[in-house]
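Supplementary Text 2. Reproducibility record for the structural model of the 225-residue chain.

All settings were left at their defaults, and a single model was retained for analysis rather than an ensemble. We include the record here because the model underlies the residue-level annotations in Supplementary Table 4.
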Amino acid sequence: MNNSVRNSARLLGAGLRALLALTLVCGVLYPLAVTGAAQAFMPGRANGSEITENGKVVGSALIGQRYDLPLKKGQETAAPDLRWFQPRPSNGLGTNSVNTQYALILSGATNRSGDNRELIDWVTAAKAAVVRDNSVPGHPVSPSQVPADAVTSSGSGLDPDISPAYARLQVNRVAVRNHLPAAQVARLVDRHTDGRVLGFAGEPRVNVLRLNIALRQLVSDARAH
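Retained model, structure tokens:
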């Protein structure tokens, strides 16, 4: 009987020591080491790829955000603020309907097939809006000029980038709305176009938030002169 109690106590003690050791290594030392290495070698990525403007965090390079006008009475969806470059559509986004105490944004794909009538209607309406919004006097936009990313959302609905083709399509409209030369805005797009990763992976892209921050500075400089 005593041997059984001693054996049980020894096993329990060994288990507790193992628990404490694993907790210390896996729950304290390892997270501290990983966090320290991340902060030392890649602090920007470790902190969420934050983008700052005038010393204030205005977003993340990894998360897209919209540029809309304030919602008017009777409107269900805010109209885009056409002074700014617009991101991809975000039809995959939803709102939290489980716990309505919190106004959370849920991301995800639309999960519609290519022949789904609702998706076709979305794309048709989005293309018409892109043509309408970006056609300015002397520079009409035809439906054939509208790239796919201008009318479809990404898998997450939070893509921070657009294609260079979609950014260039918006140049004349942005220039007119901000009273800037179109050539100057086009050069801004060129400077903020990133190539393929390692020269071969992915596609060229333009980060909309970074581009709009640069546009804001360009408008401010133009007004100052």
